[in-house]
Amino acid sequence: MKEFKIPNKLINMCKTCVQKTRSADRIEGTWSSFFENKTDLKQGDPLSPILFNLALQKVIQSTKMVPSGIKIGKEQLNILAYEEGIVLIGKN
């Protein structure tokens, strides 16, 4: 996140949201006692796609250093990133 120049205050807020979180389950209408989550992000966490996109952006930036793909006009195209997946374009 620091590489993308995201302010430290926002980085710390994200860390607070994913560290030492607790949950409870409801089984047949009765809530369980709270337990500490063992993973950092919970399923459906709104931060999940944002953090994934930041990590993916780093991968995409590193692939731009590879001189492969196709040229469209003045642009060199070597990667297509979509919500469902990534397409890498190379010589082979």
**How large is the radius of gyration?**
20 Å
Distance between the termini: 34 Å
Q: Which structural class matches the secondary elements? A: alpha+beta
The DSSP helix count reads: 2
> What composes the largest sheet?
2 strands, antiparallel
* Overall tally of domains: 2
**Shape field:** elongated
Work out the strand percent.
Answer: 15-25%
Strand order of the largest sheet: 1-4
The helix-strand sequence is HEEEEHEEEE
Unreliable sequence segments: none
Share in helix = 25-40%
The average pLDDT value, as a whole number, equals 79
Number of strands: 8
How would you characterize the overall build of this protein?
This protein has 92 residues and is α+β, with helices and mostly antiparallel strands. The chain has 2 domains: 1-45, no CATH class; 56-92, no CATH class. The chain has 2 helices and 8 strands. Strand 7 (79-81) and strand 8 (86-88) form a beta hairpin. The chain is elongated.
